[in-house]
Design brief:
Helices cover about 80% and strands about 0% of the residues. It is built from 3 helices and no strands. The chain has helices spanning about 5-20, 30-40, 50-85. Helix 1 (about 5-20) runs parallel beside helix 3. The chain starts with a helix and ends with a helix. Belongs to the complex I LYR family. This is LYR motif-containing protein 5A-like. It comes from Salarias fasciatus. It holds the Pfam family Complex1_LYR.
Amino acid sequence: ATMANPLRAEVVRLYKNLLYLGREYPKGGDYFRDRLRLAFSKNKGVQDPEQIRALIARGEFVARELEALYYLRKYRAMKKRYYEE
């Protein structure tokens, strides 16, 4: 278990980041949190560092997608506000 410890910190950080991003999720923060918890607990038995790194990369990809989604949503709302005739 000590082998995976540096990765464990990364996983926790990723989880917290996704949890934070999930608060603004279109289907609701609770919906997102439940799905997130499920995804993480499904993979909690994974021991192989390479596999863990791959899962972390996937999680970070999801985080970037969420950030892009929110950014676009804010941008569209702003644009609409400023350019409505």
